[in-house]
Amino acid sequence: MTLVEEPAAATPEKEIGRARRRKEDARLITGRTTWTDNMVLPGMLHLAIVRSPVAHARITNVDVSAAQQAPGVIAVFTGADLAEEQGSLPCAWPVTPDMVNPGHPSVAVDEVNHVGEAVAVIVGRSKVAAQDAVELVDVDYDLLPVVLDMEEAVKDGADLVHDHTSANTSYHFVFDAGEAGTGADTEQAFADAEVVVSRRLINQRLIPAFMEPRSVVVQPQGDNYTLWSATQIPHILRVMLAMVTGVPEHKLRVIAPDVGGGFGGKITPTPEEVLTLLVARRLGKPIKWTETRSESLMTAHHGRDQIQYIDIAADREGNVKGLRVRLLADMGAYLRLITPGIPALGAFMFPGIYKFPAYRFECDGVFTNKVPTDAYRGAGRPEATFAIERIMDELAVELGMDPLELRRKNWIRAEEFPFTTVAGLQYDSGDYDGATQAALELLGYDELRAEQQRRRESGDPVQLGIGFSTFTEMCGLAPSRVLGSLSFGAGGWESASIRMLPTGKVEVVTGSTPHGQGHETAWSQLVADHLGVPFEDVEVLHGDTAISSKGLDTYGSRSLVVGGTAVVKAAEKVVAKARKIAAHLLEASEDDLEFSGGKFSVRGTPGTGLGIQEIALAIFAAHNYPEGVEPSIDAEATFDPENFSFPHGTHICAMEVDTETGFVKIRKYACVDDVGTIVNPLIVEGQVHGGLAQGIAQALYEEAVYDADGNLTTGTFVDYLVPSAADLPHFDTGNTVHEATSNPIGAKGVGEAGCIASTPAVVNAAIDAVRHLGVSDLRMPLTPERVWRALHEGGDGA
Ligand code: MCN
């Protein structure tokens, strides 16, 4: 455990690198803050949603007469009532030019395509009145065949999710390194290979399961609207809602107050945000909608859900020669904001940290009668990392090599950076060997391997296994020139502005919208160092389009790398402006001034001079400013990196498997991550812990399961097993530091790393424990039943 204690010194030399406790903690941890559902407005009405109990059906009649008469009900709207104005929810990532997008109504008009889809909305004087009336809406459904299995769905003649399309495939995306000029011919590589190992892997459907349920409040004031939402993307949401509903953008203010987690689950404009806005516009009254936990699990978008066919080619000495990946990626019933792009993003990460000479990736985005998928922590990269790190283990077994030796033989060496991969990405910096050595030491590898041997030899019913994941990921989303070529939505820049108030206090406005990541603290540290002001004198404002009009929000572990750099750039401009004023006030030349510790002084006379905070007051009070300089110290900056950032690390899991019960237990978990320059070690460690919890949850606990009729059978937290701290092991974490070259801070993102890396380490460990008993695959999550079945009946246990 490398938790860094907060130093005792009140004013340390440098803020960057200091393990500050988060400014936000008191209000977030106690819950005493403004969550959207806490909002109470005079005359506010409440919305409840009538949802489809069937997965696929034509709607033949919606009878709302009883609901309209119910006590406390103000209005009821069906899909037909809102058909003219509801538009279609946006999908901003056309993966191929011919991608099929069936359109996504916020409330169904003719047809429902997944259980939980909205069919009508009820507005009540109270939440209870609205919810009670849901039962009174009588909908006639003409049932249609339900499409759930992707392998069946892509067969010729399969039943269709959308009968106005010709197939269930939304798009067929191909990346071929041979054709792209980044690698050799893949088919040839496989034809020439001495060893080929193939696997069909299931990366199961997951539910983001954020703590704060989704909630929306809309307040109309004339033709102006203020919309509060528990969203990750207030800026993008405002643009999208304006486009979908026709409410002019300048008449719509979007506020994301404190948001209790998102994990990618709040990255997309939702039907409920559209509906709340439309109904508020119709009625001219404030409206609130807050989901129940069951609604959340059933209708907030899901993540992952891929069938992966992966082939790896190598020679007998263990040099990898080629990689071939084919994916079926479940889109669910509709395309949300970045649904189709997630597997395509993963395309660039399947080669991992290895020097493959040849690579081909193909993916079908497949419609099914399930809730749409979209981002979930890591989005595309955990799936890719799982596949490559699993197949590396299988190749090692085939070759009779140690799994780490095989990895070491093929990974990019420290001296080879920058390195352009077979997928065309340029990895800028790192040392995979260094991180691995450090992780092995943290784990106590040699002792555990010896224990594993002893247990095998003695036939102990509890076997021990060790699993690796030596990973990298692309984050810090990202260069607009790359994103712009992939999407019709926004680029990847971020914006910040800084203003020094007359008393020398500092306001920072950021376009990065945190929902638990601690930006207020980290940004204050950046500003304190760059302006030389006390950390406590900095206030960070965010999440309100009336305050921060420009921004691209928080996802893809982009905030520090892109948004933090915008803050640094704005700080540099502030210093430059203050320098002009200081030179004027000190009657010196700008070139003769030094700036250190927040003070301008004439070179050679340290200790004298003017503090930047004093200058702020001087310029406000005396209006004594040089010609051509405005009487304020403020600046705005945007930053758009040249490249993604590529954190990397080595995660090692030691796992006990009880061969009699199938019960698995993580004995030890060690990881060493390289996230470049660390601004706040405490936050970084927290992010790694949270990511590990979610990655381990995928390996061991979580799966969204549908029955044959398309009902979600894991619709409560009793069935969908989100682990608590008590279900997780102690984590031994550490860092190496190789600065990123794509931003001046030198930072790489950390928000998703733990989640991306951990899943394959856990599964590899479990398989390693029982491979000598004939198990070579285990289906996630590794429930005791599955592990037991794999041990006693063969296969992957599913
Ligand atoms: N940081 C740092 N030094 C680094 C990298 C990051 O000090 N080298 C700090 C940053 O200053 C920031 C935090 O770590 O305070 C996370 O930074 P970053 O990696 O830039 O990630 P983002 O802030 O962009 O957060 C997004 C990421 C994603 S994509 C998901 S999903 C996720 C995550 O963050 N969802 C979260 N972490 C979450 N944490 C909480 N509590 N809740 C969520 O919903």
Average of the residue pLDDT scores? 95
Number of strands: 28
User: Strand fraction band?
Assistant: 15-25%
| Strand order across the largest sheet | 3-5-1-12-9-10-11
Q: Could you name the CATH topology of one domain? A: Aldehyde Oxidoreductase, domain 4
**Which spans of ≥5 residues are poorly predicted at pLDDT below 50?**
1-11
Distance between the termini: 36 Å
CATH class of one domain: Alpha Beta
Biggest β-sheet description: 7 strands, mixed
Taken from the alpha-carbon principal axes, the silhouette is globular
Radius of gyration: 28 Å
| Cofactors and ligands | pterin cytosine dinucleotide
How many helices? Answer: 22
- CATH-derived architecture of one domain: 2-Layer Sandwich
Helix content: 25-40%
* The CATH homology group name of one domain: Aldehyde oxidase/xanthine dehydrogenase, molybdopterin binding domain
Pfam families: Ald_Xan_dh_C, MoCoBD_1, MoCoBD_2
Protein name: Carbon-monoxide dehydrogenase large subunit
InterPro entries: Ald_Oxase/Xan_DH_a/b, Ald_Oxase/Xan_DH_a/b_sf, Ald_Oxase/xanthine_DH-like, AldOxase/xan_DH_MoCoBD1, AldOxase/xan_DH_MoCoBD2, AldOxase/xan_DH_Mopterin-bd_sf
GO molecular function, one term: oxidoreductase activity
Descriptive account of the structure:
The chain is of the alpha+beta class and 798 residues long. Among the domains are: 428-475 and 644-798, Aldehyde Oxidoreductase, domain 4 (2-Layer Sandwich), CATH 3.30.365; 493-639, Aldehyde oxidase/xanthine dehydrogenase, molybdopterin binding domain (Aldehyde Oxidoreductase, domain 4), CATH 3.30.365. 29% of the residues lie in helices and 23% in strands. The chain has a seven-stranded mixed beta sheet with strand order 3-5-1-12-9-10-11, sandwiched between helices. It has a five-stranded mixed beta sheet with strand order 7-15-14-13-8. The chain has a four-stranded mixed beta sheet with strand order 18-26-27-28, sandwiched between helices. The radius of gyration is 28 Å and the shape is globular. The two termini are 36 Å apart. The model is unreliable at 1-11 (pLDDT under 50).
